[in-house]
Specification:
With 120 residues, the protein is α+β, with helices and mostly antiparallel strands. 28% of the residues lie in helices and 10% in strands. The protein is built from five helices and four strands.
């Protein structure tokens, strides 16, 4: 008894060797770290290269966030993901009426390229 995926493709309860008839592993599966990257983007994947644990951070101004990023890196953080405030995510400047009350609240406020330079 098979069922369907959300895309309408049939899903069998069990697959055996006959399900791979005509399928060429060298062409479709590839080697790790090589096109089509079915087996991962790195040859040894994460057995030889650990995942980057990223800290999601950002608040207030670019200057305040930059100081926080430096503190996190000094404490051993191996990667950062920038948290932008809602007005920045929506493409509004901090002085826009729609940004009132949201600037720097849940992320860093970025209004210009100069702010980005300060951030990093």
């Amino acid at each position: 008894m098979s069922r369907e995926s959300e895309s309408g493709l049939p899903i069998e309860p069990v697959y055996g060797p006959d399900a791979l008839a005509g399928w060429e592993p060298a062409e479709k599966l590839g080697e790790p770290g090589r096109y089509p990257f079915t087996r991962g983007v790195y040859p040894s994947m994460y057995t030889g290269r650990p995942w980057t644990m990223r800290q999601y951070a950002g608040f207030g101004t670019a200057t305040e966030s930059n100081a926080r990023y430096k503190q996190l890196i000094a404490s051993g953080t191996m990667g950062l993901s920038v948290a932008f405030d809602l007005p920045t995510q929506m493409g509004h400047d901090s002085d826009a009426p729609l940004a009132h009350g949201e600037v720097g609240k849940v992320g860093v406020a970025i209004d210009s390229v100069d702010d980005m330079r300060v951030l990093f």
